[in-house]
Amino acid sequence: MMPDQKPIPGDACHFLTLNVVDRIDVFTRPAYKQVITRAINHFIEMHGVSVYAWCLMSSHLHLLIKTKEGYGPAWFERDFKKFTTPEVLKAIQTEGDLRREWMLQRFEEFSKSLKKIEKYHLWQTCNSPLHIDCQQPKLLFDKIEEIHENPVRHGIVDVPENYIYSSARDYAGLRGPVNVAVLTPGSGKSRFKRISSN
Q: Which of 148, 88, 161 is nearest to 123 (CA)?
């Protein structure tokens, strides 16, 4: 087993999708994407979050995570959004993005509509994390595959591991930008079984 590989966790994890306000395609530039990858790594290193799979698309982020005991997915979502919003906004303001004023205006209007104190609101507020029973490996690996297939379904790449901003690379034996806890599928047929021989 490679050092970053882990057996299937014994309890549960959660699948979350964090959507940008109005599904605006924010994450189109490397500078914006790097804010998110650095933030995910921050929560792994500083808050003990295990990230089993992830995929950053232009308007949303998919995550399969497990938080420390006593901290649920609502905690992660709240703190992750609070942590990333100012960093993404700073990147938008420093990049020469032609859509900068338009994006900032949409985030400001959304914040006003919610009567928020913050001037800008980057992420949508509603999210329903999906509880994944890790005692059902097929369900778990089906969800990982679904996450990794996003860029293929959107016609960005031909195979999942060619997309940089996803854990599909880690499951293919490559190194991605996030310190993913790669799960080994154990017995049974899975497209991820090849990683166990590395």
A: 88
Place of tokens 């942590």: 83
- Of residues 172, 176, 162, the one with CA closest to residue 197: 172
Tell me 68's DSSP state: P
Distance, in Å, from the CA atom of 98 to the CA atom of 143, rounded to the nearest integer, reads 36
What is the length of the chain? 198
Return the SS3 of 3: coil
Please give the model's pTM, rounded to 2 decimal places.
0.85
Q: Please give the Cα distance from 27 to 15 (Å, whole number).
A: 20
The whole-chain average pLDDT of the chain stands at 86
Decide if 155 contacts 146 (C-beta within 8 A).
Answer: no
- DSSP string across 120-172: ---B-S---PEEEETT-HHHHHHHHHHHHTHHHHTTS-SSGGG-SSBTHHHHT
Render pLDDT for 60-79 as a digit per residue (tens, 0 to 9): 999 999 998 888 889 999 99
**Structural domains in the chain, sorted by start:** 5-197 (3.30.70.1290)
